[in-house]
Amino acid sequence: MELQGVSHRFVELSGVRLHVTEAGSGEPVVLLHGFPQHWWEWRDVLPALAEHYRVICPDLRGFGQSSAPATGYDRESLLGDLTGLLDALQLDRVHLLTHDWSGILGTLLCLRQPERVQDHLMLAIPPLGAKPDAAMFGRALRHGWFNLVLPWPGLGPWALRRTGLAKTMLRGHSVDMPEDLVELFASQFQEPERAVAGSLLYRKFIQPEGMRMMRGEYRAEQLTTPTRVLIGAEDRVVRAGPDTHEIAGASHFLVDDRPDAVVEHALEFFGR
Length: 272
Prior knowledge:
Blueprint: E1 7-13, E2 16-23, E3 28-32, H1 46-50, E4 54-58, H2 75-88, E5 94-99, H3 101-112, E6 117-123, H4 134-143, H5 155-162, H6 165-172, H7 179-187, H8 192-214, E7 227-232, E8 245-247, H9 254-257, H10 259-270
Parallel strand pairs: 3-4, 3-5, 5-6, 6-7, 7-8
Antiparallel strand pairs: 1-2, 2-4
Domain AB hydrolase-1: 28-239
Pfam families: Abhydrolase_1 (PF00561)
Protein name: Alpha/beta hydrolase
């Protein structure tokens, strides 16, 4: 997985070693991947943004080439990873582009340390303060049934390693992801520690934060960071609303389905 002009390094933080790719120069833009992917999710976005910005794409804890420790997949630890990375790279204030569960993480950073995020472009996930939607909950149960499997100790890691669950997610929630990419992203879970990490992330972060969103616990939070949300028109769970932008020809894996739209929105929203 190589892109021209992209450098690689490892950043040692407390309890985790993060693999980080970088390209370009100028104002920093941090790109955070979703599940079950890693930095390569941004392969068609990174070069275009790097023409205008310094682009930083980490593999988050447990994914890609970053280490996969047995702990640290809760909200506070993941926020610690993110702020620790910003500190290590001496990034006082960044533009933020996130997909899937990392959108929750990015919003939490905006709530906790708004001075560190200039603006936040979120993909494929509703705003944390959105009004709970019973219809979306029903769609999540129907099309996101894997959310009930992945958090379970033993069962979740087994499903990722032995049943090809990650492949099912990638195929079922993208418009037409090439099979070589499906295999690439899913193959990381053949390492037992990464399969466990994926399950732990669901159990300790994704599921608890999702339930907080559904219960409306974030509705009272005062988010001051300028935020834009993009939702794929063919997303099987999330629907575009009055505070979101609908992207035609895209499902949940919006970066893979419509990288051109992501680049267009990012350059406009971030000020280029």
